[in-house]
Write a structure and sequence with these properties.
four-stranded mixed β-sheet; HSP40/DNAj peptide-binding domain; single chain; alpha+beta; 11 strands
Length: 274
């Protein structure tokens, strides 16, 4: 999977270019706009990697990995007794012990679970037919499309080898009026037009169950955005939280409120013309 190709950028793209491409692709393929969920998850996964300096460096310079089938090792050196025995024999003796195959399953969590982390009870069937039940912990800050590895919980079909790993691919349900952008959260709050004119204090209910007071100054306009630091999503590696952004929406005035506003407008006009 080529993350640069997914976002449509070159390998020399700047962080700003990567972020701009991500926003464009995310809007284009967002499931709420009829986009494909799997494609959207790939876009998120690509941005999560390329927007993080450490992850991007590891992606750009991958360490070589070697995967061998169990049968390659069952009899020791597969080149034993051939002219290549003296060339490959020592190298194969030093390779890691083979293990059973990995198992990959999908798990769906809520946006709230991304903030707090989530303990899941997962069931899956092994190659032997046995139904396996395990408890796994999804760390706070996981992204849609992330894969969390749990060592030693994979298949056990070949008893002479260690168990494989369990890979849990994360899917995150959408939450109405909430969006995620990296480590930041964005929500909307509808406010009466008179409260916008005169100013007020509102209560923002956060996804982790807290209540935050937010001061709305008088004269606040429709679409204005306020930032609440450290109320976003924790970084999966450092735990440092992003911000919560609250976008203000003006409620449509009722007929009575509209009449009052029209009366005010008439008075103001008289003041300016007298």
């Amino acid at each position: 999977m080529d993350y640069y190709q997914i976002l449509g950028v070159s390998r020399t793209a700047s962080p700003q270019e990567i972020k701009k491409a991500y926003k464009k692709k995310a809007m284009e393929h967002h499931p709420d706009r009829g986009g494909d969920h799997n494609k959207f998850a790939e876009i998120n996964s690509a941005y999560e990697t390329l927007s993080n300096a450490d992850k991007k460096a590891a992606y750009d310079n991958p360490q070589p990995q070697f995967n061998y089938n169990a049968r390659d090792f069952a009899g020791g050196n597969p080149f034993a007794g051939t002219p290549f025995d003296h060339i490959f024999g020592q190298g194969f003796a030093q390779q890691r012990t083979p293990k059973n195959r990995d198992i990959t399953i999908a798990a769906t969590i809520e946006l709230e679970d991304v903030i707090r982390g989530k303990s899941l009870v997962i069931q899956y069937r092994l190659q032997s037919g046995k139904l396996e039940t395990v408890n796994v912990d999804i760390p706070p800050g996981a992204n849609a499309g992330d894969t969390v590895k749990f060592a030693g919980l994979g298949d056990d079909g070949h008893k002479q080898f260690p168990r494989g790993d369990l890979n849990v691919r994360i899917q995150v349900n959408k939450r109405k009026n909430w969006e995620r952008e990296g480590q930041n959260l964005i929500t909307n709050k509808s406010i009466n037009v008179f409260d916008l004119l005169l100013g007020c204090v509102i209560i923002v209910n956060t996804l982790d169950g807290r209540k935050v007071k937010l001061n709305i100054p008088k004269g606040t306009k429709h679409g204005q955005v306020f930032s609440i630091p450290q109320y976003g999503i924790p970084n999966i590696n450092t735990g440092k939280k992003g911000n919560l952004y609250v976008s203000i929406e003006a409620d449509v005035p009722t007929i009575e409120e509209e009449n009052i506003l029209q009366s005010i407008a008439v008075i103001r006009n008289q003041v300016y013309t007298d």
